[in-house]
Amino acid sequence: MGKLVVLGGGESGVGAAILGKDKAFEVFLSDFSKLKPKFKEKLNSEDIQFEEGGHSISRLEAADVIVKSPGISDDLPVIKNLKNKGIKIISEIEFASWFTDANMIGITGSNGKTTVTNMVFHILKNAGLSVSMAGNVGFSFAEQVARKKVQNYVLELSSFQLDGIESFQPHIAILTSITPDHLDRYHNNFQEYIAAKFRITKNQTEDDYLIYNKDDEVIVNCLEQQPVKAQLIPFTMDTLVDDLSAFIEDNKINIKLNHNLFTMSVTDLAVKGDHNTRNAMAASTAARLLKIRKQTIRESMESFRGVEHRLEQLGKINKVTFINDSKATNINATFYALGSMNSPTVWIVGGVDKGNVYEDLLSLVNEKVKAIVCLGIDNQKIYEAFSNCVDTIVETSNMNDAVTKAYELTEENDTVLLSPACASFDLFENYEDRGRQFKNAVNHLKK
Predict the structure, then answer these.
(1) Is 167 labeled as ligand-binding?
(2) Does position 27 have pLDDT exceeding 80, yes or no?
(3) Interval 194-206: pLDDT, tens
(4) 109 labeled part of a ligand binding site
């Protein structure tokens, strides 16, 4: 099959290496950093050659195809040089899609994609389908294609993963929202980021479906300017009765697929808030396209309890509520979180700034936030944005300090909200690590 080089030895990279080995490629994995012990063990047990702590350029240049992990920027000199030599560089998602004929449901968006992915998976599993979750959640898509074999994949796809696709074609694509995010990686150009998200529908045909958020101006404008081949199914909080649409009427979700109508009361949803109603519409629409029974969809949406690290209620200490929203890695996600607060809030914020415009949060911070606890290496922008509307802003350098300080600033019936609006890489491994540390710190306070 030729020489496969995998750049990056995390979950997706090691999965791609295993699939490459199974498909008779000559595989070499290269990581500029140190590999985690669990991934090293895996590569050794699979007898896959690898290097860590640097790249052997000659071995990279000998590749027929390179699978690049999503965390590695296209702007790095090593990547540019390989591209200039005409070597095909793709993502793990693209590579895995070459070797499966399973039905693929691809989900992307600045916010909502993890929840929608979990919702779709929950419904399909309850319906008894052969299904697995992959992509930006769960285990590597490539490794699952190599070793698991299911008939349906529900794939959460980041813009970075979509950057590296060529022929990947989901039968159903879902676009939840597009707001400025990761602009540090897209040359501070919002149009580049939008184009990355829209790659999800690039290879779709008239036989495929694009379910999209009609309340999102960016998505609507883009569809007007660049028509797509897939059949379009909008979802909206307004009343809309197109032949293919999902909409709200009389506090009910209505999904109309030609002459077939599905309805469900919004009050029956286990997860609350307009954003979750939209998420439920998108997921339920995908399920209806797959001919899942209406009752199964209703029961699934009534039992779906939400996603860890997304507005996750951790209970109370002396009448102070703690909420873990570590998954809020951008301004728009934090906007949802602050908007859903119903009591005076001590807000824990900060991390690696991805080009944030904090001013978008000013009105909500004015209304909801009594104190700010910064949790990041560089908090200058947070101070500049909010020092005029919040009297108390304190800096901390680890999670235990942040939680202790936040609790000290509360009174009865207040809320402590971790909603960082930033990436986590300055102090944590990832947003899950940040969320777990928050939960541990809260539990420690309870003792």
Answers:
(1) no
(2) yes
(3) 899 999 999 999 9
(4) yes
